[in-house]
Design brief:
309 residues, Rossmann fold, binds phosphoric acid mono(formamide)ester, 9 strands, 5-stranded parallel β-sheet, binds norvaline, 42% helix
């Protein structure tokens, strides 16, 4: 059984296989509508149970469309409506019940431990739909988007992240090791990536470049990534943190230092870490980025269900 919890733990050849499958499937769907089913309906009769302990627009809808297009269906739950969320049932019992009814389980949670606990008791694959430590489905899909737009492997591009050191960046860092691309990070000293992820990069004999000056990080970038300064349920002094990030706002002047044909990506939702003209400007591909999650998640589902060709 294959879980999809953290990019660090998935073989590079499998990550590349997922991207290749997504490319092929996306090409074959050019004339199809959102709910038309891929030829062969590879997940016919299968159900993905999704549970959200935190808000979600894109992940929820894109997984719904993904499994529908493969011939299956979803059931979306909010944890507070379950016995588990009310504190009346254990993870072990809930996991066994989910495994009885469902074929796969996607969880968005504020606890990495909860994902690990579920994994222990489930007999179906679990997908991490965002946790404090990572957002793997987002970043794998973003790699697909970068390669689609740039028409070359991401390893040949300079990637830059300007923003908070959060779950999305952790997954981007993991991807930089798996896909061998140069990653420059611009963030305030106090918000640099944690020691654990940095040690992991070192252990893998790779490097990430961290600058406390956004101008240095963005110089020569082909792709600029960003995310909200304040993540969902971020328990910091919000006003203070936003102030610390003020000089890291991505605006036209800053992007002038990137390569001429740079692209801008943002997983959404956004705050004011990026100016309106950059976010909606000609270098931005955020809507395609959101759309591509459907295509890549289809191939992630096939990987988890042992059906990836
Ligand atoms: N990017 C992303 O995961 O969006 P949602 O929080 O809306 O799912
Ligand atoms: N870093 C953000 C990503 C949202 C998709 C968060 O965790 O809220």
């Amino acid at each position: 059984m294959r879980h999809f919890i953290n990019l660090k733990d998935i073989a590079t050849k499998d990550l590349k296989k997922i991207i290749a499958d997504a490319k092929r499937r996306k090409n074959l769907r050019k004339k199809l509508s959102a709910l038309d089913i891929d030829k062969g309906a590879p997940l016919k009769g299968k159900i993905l149970i999704q549970m959200f302990e935190k808000a979600s627009s894109r992940t929820r809808i894109s997984f719904y469309l993904a499994i529908k297009q493969l011939g299956g269906g979803t059931l979306t739950l909010r944890s507070n409506e379950l016995h588990l969320g009310q504190g009346g049932e254990s993870i072990a019992d809930t996991a066994k019940v989910l495994s009885t009814y469902g074929d796969g389980f996607m969880l968005r949670t504020d606890s990495d431990k909860k994902i690990e606990d579920f994994k222990k008791f489930l007999s179906i694959p679990i997908i991490n739909g965002l946790s404090p430590s990572s957002h793997p489905t987002q970043i794998l899909s973003d790699i697909f988007t970068v390669e689609e737009i740039k028409k070359k492997p991401i390893s040949k591009l300079n990637i830059c992240w300007i923003g908070d050191s959060n779950n999305v960046l952790n997954s981007l860092i993991a991807a930089s090791v798996k896909f061998s691309f140069k990653l420059s990070i611009g963030c305030p000293k106090k918000f640099e990536p944690g020691q654990e992820v940095r040690n992991w990069v070192k252990k893998n004999k790779k490097k990430i470049y961290i600058y406390n000056d956004p101008k240095k990080a963005i110089k020569g970038a082909d792709v600029i990534f960003s995310d909200k300064v304040i993540s969902l349920n971020d328990k910091v002094n919000k006003k203070k943190k936003i102030k610390t990030f003020k000089s890291f706002r991505i605006d036209k002047k800053l992007t002038n230092l990137a390569n001429k044909n740079f692209i801008f990506l943002h997983c959404l939702p956004r705050g004011n870490e990026v100016s309106e003209d950059v976010f909606l400007g000609k270098h931005s591909h955020v809507w395609l980025q959101a759309m591509n999650r459907v295509h890549v998640q289809k191939s992630i589902l096939l990987y988890c269900f042992g059906k990836l060709r």
